[in-house]
Specification:
By secondary structure, the chain is of the alpha+beta class. The chain folds into three domains: 142 residues, Adenine-n6-DNA-methyltransferase TaqI, Chain A, domain 2 (Alpha-Beta Complex); 57 residues; 141 residues, Alpha-Beta Complex (Adenine-n6-DNA-methyltransferase TaqI, Chain A, domain 2). The protein is built from eleven helices and 19 strands. The strands form six sheets. A five-stranded mixed sheet has the order 11-18-15-16-13. Strands 1-7-4-5 form a four-stranded antiparallel sheet. A three-stranded mixed sheet has the order 3-2-6. α5 packs across α7, α5 packs antiparallel against α10 and α5 packs parallel to α11. The two termini are 37 Å apart.
Length: 412
């Protein structure tokens, strides 16, 4: 059975570019397609006229799937109710035949490890891997279970997704609270007792009396990373997560990395094994992503590790670095690519508050950071469990008639 046998249509994007605007219809490009869901932060939007032009062959409907043909090749997400997207560059639209396949099941199925393996085996391109339309349409699929079984499997897996989404919402709220408290105290200078502190002139403008305008490197050490030789197998596939810009998350904590090194590999590169809550910032490629490792990690030379000096807590330093990201991104060096260099941190002036105020602030945000870390670990475990369930449910390793306990766990 081929993918086209269970679909009403599979079409690609015919159009290349159009003027974008702040409001309007989302134009889904490959970065907007996650594994099973859309990432709409920063999505390009187009006018009604462009939307009408780009959807002449088919208007994308709820339950349709959009697949990335390149970077990240093979990612698939299902259009939810209320979203009216059009296809952006290097994407394709898949409309399931609902008499043969449940759309949400097909979404999980195409994102599952077996089909993803098939997809990646069919990619072409010396520089950037991409999928040809013919290969997508004629992709051989394993036999699908009957529709009632598909619906039951999709229901079990979607219960996990609901838990994951709830945790992510809570994470976003907690992160927003921590960032808002930092701005209130250290940007707007409305910290407890601020009424008793007059303002004094400084190179940064007026700051509270008792604060100092100093270089960032006076409050933090800027440490480097490095990569062991990739041609030496003994250095790789160990137990130590190896952070690179590709691992930078869209949240505070990074739980793991795509690559891992051995103890021997770590000893053969310039990176230390950095402890949890070290501030990582990406300096090349994707510039200015900031993260806290939740476990000890090494990192490559495209990142810096920031370690607070005496009296400077890591969580205060993390939020300060987030606040300074725009400065860092607009003051990069490098003749060809934007790069944050150590001198960028030396030139960056910050307003340093007294240590007792930093300590009081840290006590206020510690619980928020701990909850975020806990929720992210739970989310990671839920994703891992969900991804393990699909092949087991399909293979019959888990009896659907006895799967009530799985559903109750997911909806608890």
């Amino acid at each position: 059975m081929q993918l086209q046998d269970v679909c009403e249509l599979i079409i690609d994007c015919e159009h290349k570019t159009a003027p974008t605007q702040e409001t309007g219809y989302p134009s889904i490009r490959t970065p907007n397609i996650g594994r099973g869901r859309f990432i709409l932060d920063g999505v390009n939007r187009v006018s009604k006229e462009t939307y009408s032009l780009w959807t002449k062959r088919a208007v994308p409907l709820p339950g349709d799937l959009i697949m990335a043909r390149e970077a990240p090749v093979g990612n698939v997400a299902m259009i939810p109710e209320g979203l009216h997207p059009c296809l952006g560059q290097r994407t394709l639209l898949i409309r399931p035949d609902r008499a043969k396949v449940e759309p949400s099941f097909l979404n999980y199925f195409l994102n599952g490890p077996h089909v993803q393996g098939l997809i990646h085996s069919k990619t072409n391109g010396a520089t950037v891997a991409h999928l040809n339309m013919k290969d997508v349409r004629t992709m051989d699929l394993p036999p699908l279970p009957p529709l009632p079984i598909q619906q039951r499997i999709a229901g079990i897996l979607s219960a996990y997704d609901e838990l994951i989404e709830n945790s992510q919402r809570r994470i976003k709220i907690l992160e927003s609270m921590a960032r808002a408290l930092y701005r209130e105290w250290f940007v707007h200078f409305r910290f407890p007792g601020h009424e008793n502190h007059s303002r004094v002139a400084s190179p940064l403008g007026e700051i509270p009396q008792g604060w100092e305008a100093i270089a960032f490197t006076e409050i933090a050490d800027v440490l480097s990373g490095g990569t062991p030789k990739t041609s030496t197998p003994e250095y790789w596939d160990g137990e130590i997560p190896f952070f690179t810009p590709r691992d930078a998350p869209d949240c505070f904590y990074v739980e793991d990395a795509d690559k891992h090194v051995t103890e021997l590999g770590l000893s053969k590169c310039a990176s230390q094994l950095y402890p949890p809550d070290t501030v990582f910032i990406t300096a090349r490629g994707t510039v200015g992503k900031v993260a806290l490792p939740s476990v000890p990690m090494a990192m490559n030379q495209s990142c810096y590790a920031l370690r607070g000096k005496s009296g400077i807590s890591q969580r205060f330093l993390f939020l300060m670095t987030l606040q300074q990201v725009e400065y860092l991104k607009t003051n990069t060096g490098g003749s060809t690519f934007d790069t944050i260099v150590v001198d960028t941190f030396r030139r960056m002036q910050i307003a340093k508050p007294p240590h007792d105020l930093i300590a009081a602030f840290t006590r206020n945000v510690d619980a928020m950071f701990e909850q975020v870390n806990t929720l992210q670990r739970q989310t990671q475990n839920l994703r891992r469990t969900r991804d393990l369930l699909l092949p087991r449910l399909l293979s019959g390793q888990i009896d659907l008639d006895a799967a009530d306990s799985i559903e109750s766990l997911a909806t608890a």
